[in-house]
Amino acid sequence: MDPVINALYAIPVLGLLFQLGGYLIAVIPPVAPIIMRSATPLALGALCGVLCERSGVVNIGIEGTMLASAFAGWIVALTVAPMIPADPSAFFGITPALLIGVGAALLTALIVTGIHAWLSISVRADQIISGTIINIAAFGLTTYVNTIVSKSSPTSAGAFVAFSLPTAVTNVPVIGTILGMFLNQGPITMSVLILVVVAQILLFRSRWGLRTRAVGEHPKAAETVGIDVIRLRYRNVLAGGLLAGLAGAFLSMESTNSFQTGMTAGRGFIALAAMIVGRWTPIGAFGAALLFSSFQALGQIINFDPPPGDLGTILGSVPAQTYDALPYLVTIVILAGLVGRSTPPAADGQPYEREATT
Amino acid sequence: MSQAPAPQASPPRLSRGAASGLARRAWSIAALPVISIALALVVGALVILASELLLPDRSFDLLLPFTAYAALVEGSFGSSGAIINSLVATTPLVLGGLAVGIGFKAGLFNIGAQGQFLMGALGAVAVGGAVASEPPIVAIPLALLGGMAAGALMGFIPGFLKALSGAHEVVTTIMLNYVAVSTMAAIVSGPLKIPRSPSPVTRDVGHAAYPILLPPNGHLGILVAIVAVVVIWWLLYRTTIGFEIRTVGANPDAARYAGMRPRLLLIVTMSLSGILAGTAGAGVVLGVTHVLTSSFGTTVGFDSIAVALLARSNPIAIPFAALLFGAMRAGAGLMQIKAGIPVELVDVVQATILLFLVASPVLRRLFRLRGVSSGLGSTETIARSYGGGGTTEKAA
Asked: Measured in whole angstroms, how far is the alpha carbon of residue A338 from the centre of its chain?
């Protein structure tokens, strides 16, 4: 086997592709669970975007919503933890404090997106400006309060623990890797799979989905057949907000066990890109989120553990920071190559004004 | 957003004297921003009071907001040194505000001012370091051009991509912001790094540094920003290309029927926007830091968005909006020292100002303002082209 592989690797130019393939097969499977984990907030954010934009409301405040929920969830869990002392349960390491924290994160997300919904649906303000306000305000408020609070003793409320499959299962080639990727995870990461599938089915196979898409494409026509455009948009934006809130809870209570200033680090914006690359469908957005986090992982692996041989020499000749930028560059290339063929909902970003009924 | 009849369009009332007419006109433009700023300060005070409750060990001080605001004002305007500091902090915001504002005028949302700013800083330090020993009269323009060119390239890319395939600038510019951070880190710790230096830092720009006009630190960049304001105003309101930019922003369909080329204008506007943000970055390097480290960070790009929105993209109003935010940033340090209020209160106040502006229909009903020009109405075209629809899509 080895001589064949070595011969393949030695072919000029084409050999490099084989080397790359061999390298990817070697390095990607072990990090598959990590890829899934870093795709989680992106996928949840993108789902939030899909729900909002399919009904015609642009939400670039996802970043701020996530940040606010991450902070609120963490600080509430932190405050409640000493009041309800409990050992982490064997099931995902759940404690009452963490559950209350998640509830607080979701509630915060509802309030934050509620402001966005009110501004963009009722006030009919520019939705991009409204989203920008959410982002600035969320960053300012969370950092402000965090600075004040962290002067007193900063502690952690703990975090959800990942489930782990028996190694006998994960050691099975291919299938074991895939199972490990999706099941060796904490509760929020696992829920992403279910949420994506449910959202996809609901959006394209249910009455709510049909109405949502109608409102996003042609609100006036939807209104004439008796759909309450304003109410539907409010509902969708708030539901989307819950997903962004879950992403925030993931950041401060599953992926890590504390809050750091600006910890969303642009994930809300990358989620938007994932939504567009995924052509405004839940499954597509999830795929795009996975793609992004795969390239992110790959960039880190190349820096950490470069491949041997010619390929390594070539990859090593580029500054290390190039690989940090890799996922962003890939997103730009895909976006520039795809968007021509992927169209947003026709009424996306347009406030709806009900005609006078006199 | 309902379009209020623009007060400027009504014939000037000569009978009541020019002064009262002028005052009324000034009020009609400034009323909403002034009310929004006042309300935002009230909200900021409430945030301060609420945050006091978070710390049980500190006695509750009802006057703390006043202490904080007094320190903020003292820190930004309390002495001649403080005023000059505020001006220096304002300078990049003026240029950044113009960069974002000219995009708004054309219906584009350039969130990439941050990345263009960083590239401008990088371009200026690269050229400035190379010509550091030339006479200032040669070195300064060259370094500034270096920054402008780098910023222009960074603005051109999203403009070109949008014209080419409809990739929305909101997403591409955000991605490019990260690419800019990596690029800067790579170049500062690579080709531009001083050999044998322990940490990644570039050469000093030497003679390419902006001369100090207002001691101790008021540099030439302040003048550059003022010139830029005049040039952009002239470009937008006195030239054909400016007319075309404004027309494409206001009504892309009308612009196309009139024979304008939206795609070309898109690229031109984004490049211009990049030049302005690049000039801002060059100004900070040539006027303040003189070197670049790989961790050079800034909030200018995002503050600029707030500036452009507050000024409603009006080039004449942008310096005032920039001064407000620049002074707040400059004074926030003293506020933190004297009143123990974290500097991020400034972000909260900024966001709240914008919130009240964007909710201007509600404010107008609440305060019974009539004949006052509407809040962010002039920028309402931004969301229309989201996701590649609108302007360029139909132009195909």
From this structure: 20
In chain A, what residues touch B305 (CB-CB under 8 Å)? 132
Q: Choosing among B51, B57, B154, B171, which should be mutated to test the A contact, i.e. which has the most A CBs within 10 A? A: B171
Bond before B216 cis per omega within 30 degrees: yes
Tokens matching residue B388: 């590649």
pTM equals: 0.87
Residue B15 has pLDDT above 60, yes or no: no
Residue in A closest to B383 by C-alpha: A349
Select the residue of B55, B305, B350 nearest A148 (Cβ to Cβ).
B55
Residue-wise DSSP of B339-375: H---TTHHHHHHHHHHHHHHTHHHHHHHHT--SPPPS
In this structure, what are the phi and psi dihedrals at residue A306, rounded to the nearest 5 degrees? Answer: -65, 150
Instruction: Give A212-232 as a DSSP string.
Output: HHHHHH-HHHHHHTT--HHHH
Give the pLDDT confidence score for residue B152 in this predicted structure. 97
CA distance B354 to chain A (A): 7
Q: A49-53, B215-219, B289-293, B359-363: which has the highest mean pLDDT? A: A49-53
Tokens of B215: 């001691």
> Least CA distance to B362: which residue of chain A?
A123
* Coil, helix or strand at residue B292: coil
Q: Cβ A133–B351 below 8 Å, yes or no? A: yes
Cα B284 → chain centroid: 14
Determine the pLDDT at residue A177.
Answer: 79
Q: Is B213 helix (H, G, I), strand (E, B) or coil?
A: strand
Q: Are A288 and A46 in contact (CB under 8 A)?
A: yes
* CA A86 centroid distance within chain: 30
Contacts of B164 in chain A (CB under 8 A): 336
Can you tell me the mean pLDDT for A74-80?
89
Evaluate if residue A310 carries a pLDDT over 80: no
pLDDT (mean) for A246-264: 90
Tokens 């123990």 belong to B340
Task: Given the cut 0.85, state whether the ipTM is greater than it.
Answer: no
Q: What is d(CA B336, CA B338) in angstroms, rounded to the nearest whole number?
A: 6
**Which 8-state DSSP code applies to residue B201?**
B
- Shortest distance, CA B14 to any CA of chain A (angstroms): 36
Q: Is B315 helix (H, G, I), strand (E, B) or coil?
A: coil
Termini Cα distance of chain A:
81
pLDDT band at B382 (very low <50, low <70, confident <90, very high): very low
Per residue in A108-145, pLDDT (tens digit) is: 999 999 999 999 898 888 888 888 899 989 999 999 99
Cβ-based neighbour number of residue B110 at 10 Å: 32
Residue ranges of the alpha helices (H) in B189-220? none
Query: Which residues are CB-contacts of A3 (< 8 A; sequence separation ≥ 6)?
Result: none
Cα distances (Å, whole numbers) of residue A266 to A35, A334, B97: 17, 18, 22
- Closest chain A C-alpha to B175 CA, distance in angstroms: 5
- Residue B100 corresponds to which tokens in the numbers above? 């974002």
Residue pLDDT, tens place only, B185-215: 999 988 888 888 788 888 888 888 888 888 8
Q: Do B388 and A343 touch (CB under 8 A)?
A: yes
For residue A186, give the 3-state DSSP assignment: coil
Q: Closest CB to B179: pick one of A145, A270, A328.
A: A328
Angle between helices A14-54 and A2-10 (to 10 degrees): 80
* CB spacing of B358 vs A340 below 8 angstroms: no
pLDDT, mean over chain B: 83
Chain B residues within an 8 Å CB radius of A335: 161, 167-168, 171-172, 175
Helix, strand, coil percent values for chain A (each to nearest 5):
70, 0, 30
